[in-house]
Amino acid sequence: RMGGFTIPLGIRLWLREAFFRTANGEESGRRHQTPLSIAEEFLRRLPERWRKRYRIVVLGDTEFFGGAFPKVCRTLGFTLVSACQRNRQFRPDTQPRTKKNLSTYAYGLHYWNERTVRIELGHTTRRFRVAERTGKMKNVGRVKIATSCRADGGSLKTLVSTDWMLPMKEIVFLYAQRW
Predict the structure, then answer these.
(1) Burial of residue 81 (number of CB atoms within 10 Å: 0-12, 13-18, 19+)
(2) Which of 80, 81, 104, 135 has the fewest CB atoms nearer than 10 Å to its CB?
(3) What is the pTM of this model?
């Protein structure tokens, strides 16, 4: 997303590592890339003038919040909004010395702090029950987590943003935009 617009800049297919081997199992000489390395390369190739002019938000699923990808986004000046795996450790600002596992912390946070918000998605308005907390995650730094589920029922999603100043309502809106 750039400047309020979602712009698909290109598509590159990901091929499994086995594709790069010959029938004998030998290397074919072609280079294998993971989906994260393709995404990283794609972001690095964005024109410099776009980086300076627009606030770029990278939207992703759980695999995008692993490894070095969040640091790459932060280094390039982009915000990453992504679903997060529940096995990740989180240190809330309210309890900086304790590590919380998101699998249990998200449910407690949502239960005790949820509120209902309305978010316009296209031509419809949906209600979500949301809660938020800022803190730190290992290998990522300061983040904001937002828990979200539809007001009429649905599974709980744990969303993470590398921009900890981003409002929780916008985090949910941005994540919903990826479809």
Answers:
(1) buried
(2) 104
(3) 0.79
Helix (H) or strand (E) holding 43: helix 35-44
Task: State the residue for tokens 């000489």.
Answer: 29
One-letter amino acid for residue 111 of the chain: Y
Q: Long-range pairs for 115-124 at CB < 8 Å and ≥24 separation?
A: 116/151, 117/168, 117/169, 117/172, 119/169, 119/172, 119/173, 119/176, 121/173, 121/176, 121/177
Residue in the block written with tokens 């949910």: 172
Contacts 24+ apart (CB under 8 A), 105-108: 106/145, 106/147, 106/156, 106/158, 107/156
> Residues near 117 by Cβ (< 8 Å), separated by ≥ 6?
127, 128, 130, 168, 169, 172
